[in-house]
Specification:
Organism: Quillaja saponaria (Soap bark tree)
CATH superfamily of the largest domain: EF-hand
Family: Belongs to the protein kinase superfamily. CAMK Ser/Thr protein kinase family. CaMK subfamily.
Distance between the termini: 39 Å
Keywords: ATP-binding, Kinase, Lipoprotein, Myristate, Nucleotide-binding, Phosphoprotein, Repeat, Serine/threonine-protein kinase, Transferase
Number of helices: 25
CATH class of the largest domain: Mainly Alpha
Mean pLDDT: 79
Shape: globular
Largest sheet: 5 strands, antiparallel
Strand content: 5-15%
Membrane topology: Lipid-anchor
Number of domains: 3
Bound molecules: adenosine-5'-triphosphate, calcium ion
Subcellular location: Membrane
Radius of gyration: 26 Å
Length: about 625
């Protein structure tokens, strides 16, 4: 990886404190020494920002720097000085500072920076506010983010906020709004403390910004009933603001807790946090909602208690996504953004990547992809492999490393889903987790149902090579479909399982339309053996070290039972190859010349089947 490790890197060198200041354009500058020098006053936190006396601040910096220089290891193995930045008296968190534009500034003086608040990708801000100069945005934007006058800023929300709630102290602040505690004056919540996210209409200067707020409320309203999701109560508006009323979480942001611990989470502690995050993410994905802004700032603890429950907040960038749909707008926060988002073709897997980044940070205290500039971070996300060689990784369990690596796989088809992550040995071996239904099962089953008998035979052969560990997840998923006493499922099982888990969000994400793909199961039943073939992801299988062995073994089984002579045209249509492809040249090696049956190469290609893109068009 080489970006955020213990050796002074030779490129993308962090030489300034991580802060909310705009990244500079000189991300190509190389630095021999990435230690921040204590007398480089331009890099010191300003007292105007953090309220500290500048000379104290310099002294602290110096001390910390000395600690760092003395330590042969990472800065995270020296006590973190970060917690003082988050004390209640921090002006960044007080209402008096309410005019500042975004997340409170927090500064660090470390050669290898710990996590800090993540900024939204500049292109997001350009689209939403029309405020970033076109040449500043890393990704060129169209005219959709243009500032338009005469926008309709009425949302149809109740206008009686003032008569129902009394606003109290500010409890947090983001780029789009600020959040206050409030007291409910009447109704069901009378006397109860709530949180109110206030989004000023003056900030909604583009049609997209307005649409985002509408969708934020719609998604919050629709998604209900998960323990790790903040409870939404209602939305209001007046001439100046939109008010989102929700459950008050008094335990602060996950980011603050990570920082106050100096980045040290034991495997078990990290696991406890990640189980909650993944359980929430799997829930969203089953409802067809992609959060798109998962980061430690957007998870809050309900209380200061060490074992407090974690709640996801901030659906400001979230969207509905149909099972076969790919989204293309570049959205999120740079450190956490998935490679396929930067490639403008993504779905729910992008959230899982962000959880991978959070998992990496929880376990080692550093960000897996870091650079001083946005474009540098993007380059790292697209090209660099995170380091697992530096401390503390060598002392961590093999399972923990495998878990994080499989969340941070660049190809989204090969990455684990949230439900699979909850079934990963690192989690399942030591905790009693309620495994959720995985939307991936339905996507794969749909592709299976549309496949030829030849591909089904190939998949069946591969499924016979699964080990007990690999079967665990499929067994759990099959059980969630509640097979009858003969151990088989049909259309009704799939429908019932989906409906049992449905919230209102499912209407917008059209998950129910998807059910028609399973019509064939109205007339026949599927047993566990066939389910394994149907719900097996060949792409995910490919990342396993023993893949080649599995595939060879499966090919032998297929040879005995399923392989048959096939003509090139049949294979081309099976694989969804278009007329522009010279099939005879391309598929030449996929068919064995001696008997016209599939070669090993052809077998592997057939296993992958038609690309999801051509399936989506079908
Ligand atoms: N229910 C809540 N209880 C307590 N604090 C909250 C609650 N909701 C939000 N906050 C605080 O307010 C902050 C800002 O809220 P939120 O993240 O929703 O705003 P935003 O403007 O959309 O942020 P961003 O800049 O990440 O897009 C949060 O980081 C958190 O500290
Ligand atoms: Ca936020
Ligand atoms: Ca937001």
């Amino acid at each position: 990886m080489g970006i955020c490790n213990s050796k002074p890197p030779t490129h993308e060198t962090p030489s300034s404190p991580i802060s909310d200041t705009q990244p500079t354009k000189n991300d190509h500058i190389l630095s021999e020494d990435n230690f921040v020098t204590a007398n480089d006053s331009s890099k010191l936190p300003s007292s105007a920002v953090n309220g500290e006396n500048p000379s104290n601040e310099q002294a602290k910096d110096k001390n910390e720097l000395q600690n760092v220089r003395k330590s042969p290891f990472f800065p995270f193995y020296s006590p973190s000085p970060a917690s003082y930045l988050f004390s209640k008296k921090s002006p960044a968190r007080s209402p008096a500072n309410a005019s500042s534009k975004s997340t409170p500034k927090r500064f660090f003086k470390r050669p290898f920076p710990p996590p800090s608040p993540a900024k939204h990708i500049k292109a997001v801000l350009a689209r939403r506010h029309g405020s970033v100069k076109p040449n500043e945005a890393a990704i060129p934007e169209g005219s959709e983010g243009e500032v338009v006058s005469g926008l309709d800023k009425s949302f149809g929300f109740s206008k009686h906020f003032g008569s129902k709630y009394e606003l109290g102290d500010e409890v947090g602040r983001g780029h789009f709004g600020y959040t206050c505690a409030a007291n409910s004056k009447k109704g069901e919540l009378k006397g109860k403390q709530v949180a109110v996210k206030v989004i000023p209409k003056a900030k909604m200067t583009t049609a997209i910004a307005i649409e985002d707020v509408r969708r934020e409320v719609k998604i919050l309203r629709a998604l209900t009933g998960h323990n790790n999701l903040v409870q939404f109560y209602d939305a209001y508006e007046d001439h100046d603001n939109v008010y989102i009323v929700m459950e008050l979480c008094e335990g602060g942001e996950l980011l603050d807790r990570i920082l106050s611990r100096g980045g040290k989470y034991s495997e078990d502690e990290a696991k406890a946090v990640l189980i909650q995050i993944l359980s929430f993410v799997a829930f969203c994905h089953l409802q067809g909602v992609v959060h798109r802004d998962l980061k430690p700032e957007n998870f809050l603890f309900t209380s200061k208690d060490d074992n407090s429950e974690l709640k996801a907040i901030d659906f400001g960038l979230s969207d509905f996504v149909k099972p076969d749909e790919r989204l293309n707008d570049i959205v999120g926060s740079a450190y956490y953004v998935a490679p396929e988002v930067l490639h403008r073709s993504y779905s729910t897997e992008a959230d899982v990547w962000s959880v991978g980044v959070i998992a990496y940070i929880l376990l080692c205290g550093s960000r897996p992809f870091w650079s001083r500039t946005e474009s540098g971070i993007f380059r790292a996300v697209l090209k660099a492999d995170p380091s697992f060689d530096e401390l503390p990784w060598p002392s961590m369990s093999v399972e923990a490393k495998d878990f994080v690596k499989r969340l941070l796989i660049k190809d989204p088809r090969k990455r684990m889903t949230a439900a699979q992550a909850l079934s990963h040995p690192w989690i399942k071996n030591c905790s009693d987790v309620n495994l959720p239904l995985d939307i991936l099962i339905f996507k794969l089953m749909k592709a299976y149902m549309r496949s030829s008998s030849l591909r089904k035979a190939a998949l069946r052969a591969l499924s016979k090579t699964l080990t007990e560990d690999e079967l665990f997840y499929l067994r759990e998923q099959f059980a969630l479909l509640e097979p009858n006493k003969n151990g088989t499922i049909c259309f009704d099982n799939i429908k019932t399982a989906l409906m049992k888990n449905a919230t209102d969000a499912i209407k917008d994400s059209r998950i129910t339309d998807f059910l028609s793909s399973f019509n064939a199961l109205q007339y026949r039943r599927m047993d566990f053996e066939e389910f394994c073939a149907a719900a097996l992801s060949v792409y995910q299988f490919e990342v396993l070290e023993r893949w080649e062995q599995h595939a060879r073994c499966a090919y032998e089984l297929f040879e005995k039972d399923g392989n048959r002579a096939i003509v090139i045209e049949e294979l081309a249509s099976e694989l969804g190859l278009g007329p522009s492809i010279p099939v005879h040249a391309v598929l030449h090696d996929w068919i064995r010349h001696t008997d016209g049956k599939l070669s090993f190469l052809g077998f592997v290609k057939l296993l992958h089947g038609v690309s999801t893109r051509s399936l989506a068009k079908a």
